[in-house]
Design goal:
With 588 residues, the protein is α/β, with parallel strands linked by helices. The protein has helices at residues 2-25, 29-62, 66-115, 118-123, 126-138, 141-168, 170-176, 180-217, 219-224, 233-279, 284-325, 386-393, 416-421, 437-442, 450-459, 463-466, 486-500, 516-530, 565-571, 574-587; strands spanning 347-355, 361-370, 375-380, 401-406, 409-410, 423-427, 435-436, 476-477, 504-508, 534-538, 550-555, 558-563. The strands form three sheets. A six-stranded mixed sheet has the order 6-9-10-3-11-12, with helices on both faces. A four-stranded antiparallel sheet has the order 2-1-4-5, with helices on one face. A two-stranded antiparallel ribbon has the order 7-8. The radius of gyration is 35 Å and the shape is elongated.
Length: 588
């Protein structure tokens, strides 16, 4: 009963899914029409070819008129050539069209992922997303390039063969159908089992990709703790092996069974047909045509079963793809965004409440104002809400209550592109993309010239180490910038930020885990970077923010203290305790 309900649900889901898939093929309808005509032509040729051979056999047995046999040979060659041309054109058009559709789907999925809010990436593994964009999209390829057209071809071929066989001899044609009930049962069983096994394979593949993505990213931690042999990859790979093995086993059983049935049918036709030939009811050529048709008759039936299975598999992959495409970004652009123009940098939080999930509040009724050009620092214990404030200013998450404004305009009324282009973020962990130094500063913004790149690097003291590299600004950067030190990556991030010339500068632990020699360069670069910009800093080391215009002390999601470094020390509150604790640790 449960399986029946699940099957009904799947059918209800797959109807709309199939219609959505057809929409991607709609712009290329004329290519599919051409392929359909070509396929029908191929089907006619495949049915007509044995008839020519049968006629030649009858001519040999009756008169051996070589002029007629020569004519049949010419016809046979023409049929072969036409078959080759039709097959070539059909394959070429289908593959080109299918790959174009797959390209469009993959591009749409990737672009949509870029629009999703940060919350989606917080709760979705990278491996799962990669599987959707690569494997699941590729699983649709066969549906567009083969199944849609070949389904019609196989159905047309089965019908065509049955019609011709009944026209040739109704008795032999009826004998051919005696095995059909068994064929139908086998096909239904195969379809059901293959659909289940394929779904398991897709699930195991997603799990494997997720595991790989996570553990390759954390390889340093694995090697530090010598946990290479403790990893679960062998178990997951074994699960994938067993799932794929079961899928292949299903095909390995079904195909030979269909082949055996075709041989049984052929034996029946040859046995009964031989007597009919001896009785003179049909010719030897006609019996040959029947024997050839029997061999051809079971192939499209087998292909139909496998194609329906592949179609189900494509539906399963499409469901996963559409799950991502249907994912709505939590942070949405307004229909008519307010244009700020040149941002001055006045930031105001008005009674802001924020939680990543439910009512587990990270920020509770937070209010403050930062004037243009001010340098403001947030300090507090881990989990106090400091980094969340930085994320909210760039509107990577939306607040539940209150209002955040920049230059008096609610950030929800602005375009996120305009908002984020006005904010330069410098983080503790700098992400470097595969490419070169130059491309990591420009970040695909071709309006930034090479001279501006060098000027930005020079201004933040990054030019010193860059020019010492063998290829300078063209020096290759490996994944995540593994060949660069933390300090070098941080200086490049400063140059990246400066090249975009933001009005507001946001820094989250920008000087953490940096060696003393590099820190002096970074501090000097920061001073230059903060000039004439509203600057918001989060730092655990209080020594790095002592010269801030204003320091706000966060505690359990609320602002408990506000003032300069000296003012907060004189209050004898949370800030003074933090400062004395760090001072004691530094002297111990």
């Amino acid at each position: 009963m449960k399986n029946r309900k699940l099957s009904s649900i799947e059918e209800n889901v797959q109807g709309p899914v199939f219609r959505r898939l057809l929409k991607y093929a709609a712009p290329y309808w004329w290519q599919f029409v051409i392929c359909l005509l070509l396929v029908l032509g191929i089907t006619v040729i495949e049915i007509y070819r044995p008839i020519l051979t049968g006629k030649a056999i009858d001519l040999f047995s009756v008169s051996a008129d070589f002029s007629e046999i020569a004519l049949l040979s010419v016809q046979y060659i023409i049929v072969l050539v036409l078959g080759f041309l039709f097959n070539f054109l059909n394959t070429w058009i289908l593959q080109l069209t299918g790959q174009t559709i797959i390209y469009n789907i993959r591009q749409e999925v990737f672009e949509h992922i870029h629009k999703l809010s940060m919350r989606f990436f917080d709760i979705t593994s990278v491996g799962k997303i990669v599987t959707r964009v690569t494997n699941d999209v590729e699983a649709l390829n066969e549906m567009y390039t083969q199944i849609l057209v070949r389904l019609i071809k196989n159905i047309a071929k089965i019908i065509g063969l049955m019609v011709v066989m009944f026209l040739l001899n109704a008795k032999l044609a009826a004998l051919t159908l005696c095995l059909m009930p068994l064929i139908v049962v086998l096909t239904i069983v195969f379809k059901s089992i293959s659909k289940t096994t394929y779904r398991i394979v897709r699930t195991k593949l997603t799990a494997l990709n997720t595991y790989l993505s996570e553990h390759l990213s954390g390889m340093k931690v694995i090697q530090i703790f010598a946990k290479e042999k403790d990893m679960e990859f062998k178990e997951r790979a074994r699960d994938m092996f067993h799932a794929s093995y079961r899928e292949m086993l299903v095909f390995a059983i079904f195909r030979p069974l269909m082949y055996i049935l075709s041989i049984v049918a052929l034996c029946i036709i040859l046995g009964v047909g031989s007597n009919i030939v001896l009785e003179g009811a049909i010719t030897a050529g006609t019996l040959y045509i029947f024997s050839d048709y029997i061999r051809s008759f079971f192939d499209p039936i087998q292909e139909l079963a496998e194609q329906f299975s592949t179609l189900q598999s494509a539906m399963a992959s499409a469901e996963k793809i559409f799950t991502i495409l249907d994912e709505e970004p939590l942070v949405k652009n307004p229909e008519n965004p307010v244009e700020l123009g040149k941002v001055k940098g006045r930031i105001e939080f008005e009674n802001v409440w924020f939680a990543y999930q439910g009512e587990d509040w990270i920020l509770k009724d937070v209010s403050f104002t930062i004037e243009p050009g001010q340098r403001v620092a947030f300090v507090g214990a881990t989990g106090a809400g400091k980094s969340s404030i930085l994320n909210l200013i760039g509107r990577y998450y939306d607040i539940q209550k209150g209002r955040i404004t920049i230059d008096g305009v609610d950030i929800k009324e602005m375009s996120t592109d305009e908002l984020r282009s006005a904010i330069g973020q410098v983080q503790q962990d700098v992400f470097m993309f595969t490419g070169d130094i130059k491309s990591n500063i420009r970040l695909k913004n071709e309006t930034i010239t090479e001279e501006e790149i060098k000027e930005a690097a020079r201004y933040v003291n990054a030019d010193g180490f860059i020019e010492q590299l063998e290829q300078g600004y063209d020096e290759p950067v490996t994944e995540r910038g593994a060949t660069l030190s933390a300090g070098q990556r941080q200086l490049i991030s400063f140059a990246r930020t400066l090249a975009y010339d933001p009005s507001i500068l946001v820094m989250d632990e920008a000087t953490a885990n940096i060696d003393t020699e590099t820190e002096s360069l970074i501090q000097e670069a920061l001073e230059k970077l903060m000039q004439n910009r509203t600057t918001i800093m989060v730092a655990h080391r209080l020594s790095t923010i002592q010269h801030a215009d204003k320091i706000m002390v966060m505690h359990k999601g609320r602002i408990r203290e506000t003032g300069t470094h000296q003012e907060l020390l004189s209050q004898d509150g949370i800030y003074k305790k933090l400062y004395e604790l760090q001072l004691a640790n530094a002297n111990s």
